[in-house]
Amino acid sequence: MECQECEKRSATLHFTQVINGHKTEVHLCEYCAQEKGYMNNGEHNFSLHSLLSGLFNFDSAPSLSGSQSTSYNPKNSLQCEKCEMTYHEFTKTGKFGCANCYTTFNEHLHPIFRRVHSGNTKHDGKIPKRAGDAIHLRKTINEHKVKLKELIQNEEFEEAAKARDQIRELEKKLRNDRDGDS
Amino acid sequence: MSLQNFINEAISPWLKEEGDDSDIVLSSRIRLARNFMDIPFSIVAEEDDLQNVLDVFEDNFKHQSFGTYQDFELVRMAELEPVEKRVLVEKHLISPNLAENNSTGAVLISQNEQVSVMINEEDHIRIQLYYPGFQLENALEHASTFDDWLEEKINYAFDENRGYLTSCPTNVGTGMRASVMMHLPALVITQQMNRIVPAINQLGLVVRGIYGEGSEALGNIFQISNQITLGKSEKDIVEDLKSVVQQLIEQERNARNRILNDSGIELEDKVFRSYGVLAHSRIIQSKEASKCLSDVRLGIDLGLIQNVSNTILNELMVLTQPGFLQQYAKKILSPEERDVRRATLIRERLNLEKE
Question: Do A123 and B204 touch (CB under 8 A)?
């Protein structure tokens, strides 16, 4: 069957419209269907996010009285004081409103992150230079502590003593930095 | 404008360089999502908030340079014609999403187009950095130092436990999406992709078509990227992606050799038929054009076709997109007119090779 619009390409899409009980059939190729607006550009309609927001609701109790019941759920009334996004809105859009939302909704986020990031809930990557000075220090200290344990296990006590001193040094620096801030 | 000049302007300078394994990996990309700490994310922000984001870039980064990235240009979406935006999308410098933000959307682009920073997309900042061929580590290293440079002037939304905070939970943590664009014709011909894609998905990686989410793998070009951004370091994510890409390169090479040995004449026939279509057709749709371009590129890589440069696939895949065709024609074209223009442009481009 050829496309009834361009009469060149073969029709691959077949639409049936019923308007006031009157039925019409339209046979178009993909090209003309796009042109005539029969097809939606996928991006705007069915995105990953709409799929995701479906996932977010998985832990809400099965509703007894239809969709209304969601408003009884206390966590849905949680609201971010900075951007005023509610938890309910967040589960609907699948997007946070601001950095503070992460704090406000914190205790409900674990299951969501676990689903989206294969079980992971804690960041293990880059720390910004300027914003993360203290975090950097704490991270280095932890790394040194792991090293220290290893050294002790391997009975390399001389090296271990060095590592211990380094840790003390770093901890002192961390304390000083903190005092400097306040 | 002559075609040669048009091509020179149309193809990003970085893409003209050769990278590792560039017979199979066309490009490597690192994308980092970042937000301002004290400004609401784009989804709920007022226009004033987002204007502030834009002002920071206007005041601190416009016409600045960082390392090899010279003289950043700041382009506002509001200043662009629809066709111009489409061209930027086709060059992968902006997303279709950003193109729609006409009030505060903007993009910061380095002269060589290797770095682009989308401003006020879903996140306030989305850094994209490209390298030709298979160079994920280089891309990561440079994206990270570039990110540090931006951080000197911007207070990022960051949390010790959650990492870089993003509007969508799918990006939180590293905020990083690492991806490679691969030309895998032999795996498609031997019908191995159907088997490979699900396996790759199980490793926390995603396979998509050339223009991102939901797009078709036109011209046998696949984009492979990480899905997980939380709980793994940037380096580990890149390592994981790298090892999968390496395996794919090997499998593609094996498949190419196998086809060449088992059915060399059939392959040669396929390749030259496609060359014939490109060299002589008067009307060609983008789907057919991409298929033929893929065949011809395969022919070049296997030494079946000589005297045609191997950049032809990368070039014409971009140039024959609707936006570019209309920019070259300097007017809006109907789909039918585009098909005619596309055929003409491809013929002209192949003729350039003969000169």
Answer: no
Q: Is the pLDDT of residue A62 over 50?
A: no
Which residue of A96, A113, A118, A121 to mutate against B (max B Cβ within 10 Å)?
Answer: A96
Answer yes or no: is A23 within a domain: yes
Confidence of residue A92 (pLDDT cuts 50, 70, 90): confident
Q: What is the distance in angstroms between the Cα of A47 and the nearest Cα belonging to chain B? A: 8
ipTM of the complex: 0.83
pTM: 0.78
Q: B218: which residues sit within 8 A by CB, 6+ positions away?
A: B209, B210, B211, B286, B287, B290, B317
Q: How many CB pairs under 8 A join A and B?
A: 137
- Annotated binding-site residues of B for ATP read 27-31, 92, 126, 177-181, 208-213
CA distance B62 to chain A (A): 22
Q: A47, exposed or middle or buried, with CB in 10 Å at 0-12, 13-18, 19+?
A: middle
- Same domain for A92 and A113: yes
Question: What residue numbers bound the domain in which A146 lies?
Answer: 129-181
- Which domains does chain B carry? 1-15+30-160 (3.30.590.10), 259-352 (no CATH)
Strands (E), chain B: 25-34, 73-76, 106-109, 115-119, 125-132, 158-159, 163-164, 176-183, 205-208, 221-226
Name the minimum distance, in Å, from the CA of B105 to any CA of chain A.
18
SS3 of chain A: CECCCCCCCECCEEEEEEECCEEEEEEECHHHHHHCCCCCCHHHHCCHHHHHHHHHHHHCCCCCCHHHHHHHCHHHHCECCCCCCEHHHHHHHCCCCCCCHHHHCHHHHHHHHHHHCCCCCCCCCCCCCCCCHHHHHHHHHHHHHHHHHHHHHCCCHHHHHHHHHHHHHHHHHHHHHHHHHC
Give contacts of B204 with chain A, Cβ < 8 Å.
Answer: 118
Tally of domains within chain A: 3
String of DSSP letters for B252-279: HHHHHHHHHHHHHHHHHHHHHHHHHHHH
> Which pLDDT score, from 0 to 100, does residue A57 have?
57
* Residue A102 structure tokens: 């992460």
